[in-house]
Amino acid sequence: MNGDFDWSSLFADRIGGRAFGIDNAGYKFERIKRAKAAARLAHPEIPLIDLGVGEGDWPADQKVVDTLCREAGLTENRRYADNGIPEFNEAASRYLERVFNVKVIDPNTEILPGIGSKSLLAMLPACFINPGDILLTTVPSYPVMASWARFLGGEVFELPLTEENDFLPDLSSIPAEILRRSKMLYLNYPNNPTGAIATTEFFASVVAFARKNGIMVVHDAAYAALTYDGSAPLSFMTVPGAREVGIEVHSLSKSFNMTGWRIGFLCGNALAIAACAAVKDNTDAGQFRAIQKAAISALNHPEITERTIDKYSRRFDLLVPALRSLGFDAKKPFGSFYCYVKAPTGTARGVQFHSASDVSDFLLGEALVSTVPWDDAGAWLRFSVTFEAETEDDEIRIVEELRSRIAALELFF
Ligand SMILES: Cc1ncc(COP(=O)(O)O)c(C=O)c1O
Question: Most buried residue, 43, 44, 144, 185, by CB count within 10 Å?
Fold first, then answer.
């Protein structure tokens, strides 16, 4: 109930000013959510096949759940956790060494836990971006740092991820004038949405670029442990010099099926970590200690991730051939849980698509198949292997159902 109180003159320009609340239709994931609800309402008799979701379909491991249950009632866990408990930092440091071969990260100064990596990414621009400063970011990408850089009066320079460049940014393409004002570079490998992985050589070139231009690097490693077919998990922190120029953001969300639990951490340059701790002290009071203790039990058991990897790998081995048989140029990615494919341009029955969004809407409306469209660097669709399936037989059945529903649409490319 607003009565005659004029809210519109109060909203800050960064969220739309007077226009705030009048049209929120532009936010992609909100739009997809609404489109899914409408498709379900229109066809309640057909189960929606959801390959749009960016989170695992399994619950957290029972060991982790048991630890939370045990710790949740302990009196000493009730207190504010501020910027973390030392045991979490120690477990994170051990995990980095065990899974990524990152040597001697100091748990006291080179690790900072956060309430999920999203909130850490949101805080980082506040540490470095003054009005007029530039954040370099790959596109398409996870948009949180770019949104905050803009909120703070900074600018964003986009580096397109293209197939020709193996979905790695071309750092040599950045104009000198942009480099002069740039302070931060955001990267994410394995990449959401392209599924591309980085190489040690690429990361070494990033370190050299950062040094030469005085730009700090944020590597988002949310999917770093999810790799396939012999591709080893790769941390930016293993590259010589990385710790002098950057930090890495880790998350338990995807690797341990803990998206809703909200726990992740930063590692890397101690000064940059101290800057983020200063902003964080003024933002939240830390994750519930019982969740941090449950997260320690996850970090101590990386084999939890291996079971998830086996499942996603198996699903890619079903999905990729199915998509190829439909005309998509699909390839199994080496990391993440996304298959990123060029969007079709129309159908044999005369429908023409002008964007990946058009295709995604069409697949949802006509076949009740949900995907995520990306139109930032060409028209591409993201299929996620996190669809709901209880058993391996269900996985086979669902992918076959998806194939036959899409086949009936007679897409062309
Ligand atoms: C690339 C990337 N980074 C970070 C996140 C945020 O993860 P969380 O806040 O759950 O740790 C996501 C979630 O989808 C993501 O895709």
Answer: 185
